[in-house]
User: Fold this.
Amino acid sequence: MEQSFQVEMVRWYYSLTKRPFLMPEDMYEHWVILAADEGSFHYRIGDEAGMAKFGDILLCPPNVKLHRKSDKPLSFLFAEFSWRNAAGQPMEPGPQLPYGKISFHRINRYSSTFDCVREMSNKETRDNFAYRQHLVTDMLFLYAAERQDEQSLRYTKDPAIRTAALYIQNHAYEPISLKELADHACLSQSQFSRRFQAAVGQSPIAYLTALRMKRARSLLIETEQTLEKIAIQCGYQNGFYLSRVFTATYGISPSEFRKSYRI
Assistant:
């Protein structure tokens, strides 16, 4: 997948109330994302088949039949789109982009995006088309980031550290300690810190902090939330501590960052 890309929205539909799929299968001219909100469904795309629930998205390429069936009514997002490069010209993502089910590891990050999807359900499409397009792009960027994480971890020969790094990604925005991470890897804290540094190139706390700071940056730019609320969503107890870590990381306070980089 290209590191810089855009999407051009063709269609968007989010089901306000739970309902079954109207058609058990269909084929589309453009790329499609299908994502369950409340409920789950069976799917088949090419030779791949399985069950999808919240935290998963189906990515279906053009002119490939998408089969879907829900045992019970569900709410879901459907988005049809085409790819654009950074200059806005048509492009294809390339054969390295797998299609089918994508399961997100950073479920809290995915959930925050889907909160915005729900908010859009009651608003006029004409007035919010660009923002809906942004939300689909955000899902794909999140997937690209997770792919990059997985590729970098693939070169980590220490299986205990690979597992620990994935654990950090999945629980980055929850209260988490070095002792908890070391216990999860069945190592002492000193052994864990040394092996993590050797395998990943940074300490486990620095790795955790980087994930939290990325989320803090996004929330500062994209929302009106107070620093206290952002802190809780990034795994910190209060806004004062988040501000101290953010300033030490970027050399600028959260309030100054928000003023300078707000879209």
